[in-house]
Amino acid sequence: MTVASTSTTSLRARRGALGIALTGLMALAALIASLAVGAVAIPPEQVVAILLHGATGGATDALRDAIVVWDIRLPRALLGMMVGAATALSGAVMQGLFRNPLADPGIIGISSGAALAAATWIVFGTTSIAFLPAPFSGYGLPLAAFVGGLAMTSSCTPSPRRMAVPR
After folding, report:
1. Residue 65's closest CA among 48, 83, 77, 89?
2. What is the pTM of this model?
3. In this predicted structure, which of 12-21, 38-47, 76-85, 130-139 has the lowest mean pLDDT?
4. Which of 48, 42, 43 is nearest to 68 (CA)?
5. What is the pLDDT of residues 75-95, one digit of tens each?
């Protein structure tokens, strides 16, 4: 290995570490901003104090702000971050599997299957296919779309081995 290739490799490693650190800082800033903005305005520095120390002081406003942050906004923000990460991961897996940087769910029919099942549920679901109990009846449409996308994916795609292994 030459000196030039060693310095190029270490420069790439430093740039990669810097990129990861900046991405983490931006995600933290977005999390704090999402915890601060809402119907009850809470300053970002107070959000950080609540996260680090809990409710400070005996004032009812401080207790209210702590309840809003811990019980309402934090679970919602963390769930949103996890869903975003799962979506990014599934997109990267699909792009790698199909060796196509523009791969999307429409390539293997997920969108079409979900749309067909959702349309079928809208037309026939509430009258003829009422198998969901009353408290869960509002979940019929998303459940039908999920099942339709899953059925289309499992029935219309070739095996992963045939897709990934070149002939």
Report:
1. 48
2. 0.69
3. 130-139
4. 42
5. 999 999 999 999 999 899 888
